[in-house]
C-alpha cells in the first residue's frame, strides 16, 4: 500500500463548501448583472433611476467577485494567512451585501415575507460562508503556533555589533 498524502477530510469538505458557495452566488450575480444591463439600456431620466442603476452595478460587481475568489482558491494552494485573507474577503462581501439589503428594505414598508427572506439569507450566510472562515482562522492560528514553537528553541543573544553571546554573559560587558 502506498501512503497517500492528499488533502484531509476537513480540507475536502472545505473545498466542497467553497464550490457550493460559488454555485449559490453565480445565479444571484447573473440576476443582478441582467438587471444592471437592462438598466443601462433604459434612458436615465431621474436621479432615483441613476441611484438604482448604480446600486445594481455595485451589487453585481460584489457578487461577481465571490466566484472569482472561489476560482482562485480552487486552482491554487495558498499559505494559511492568504487563505484567511481570501475567506475574510468573501465573508465580508457577503455580509456587506446582506447589510446593504437590510438597510435598503428597511425604509420601504415591505411585507413581512420580504423581511423573512432577509433572515433566511442571513442563515445561508452563517451556514455557508462563516464555517470556511472559521476553519481558515483555525488553520492560520495552528500554523502561527507551530512557527512560534519552532522559533522558541532557537533564540540567540547578540550584542550591538552582531557578535553572539552566551546567555550567562553579563549584559553590559565584563565587569572587572
From TrEMBL:
Q: Which UniProt keywords apply?
A: Membrane, Transmembrane, Transmembrane helix
User: Does Transmembrane helix appear among the keywords?
Assistant: yes
Where do the TM regions start and end? 20-42, 48-72, 84-103, 115-138
Highest taxon of the lineage: Eukaryota
What protein name does the entry list? Answer: MARVEL domain-containing protein
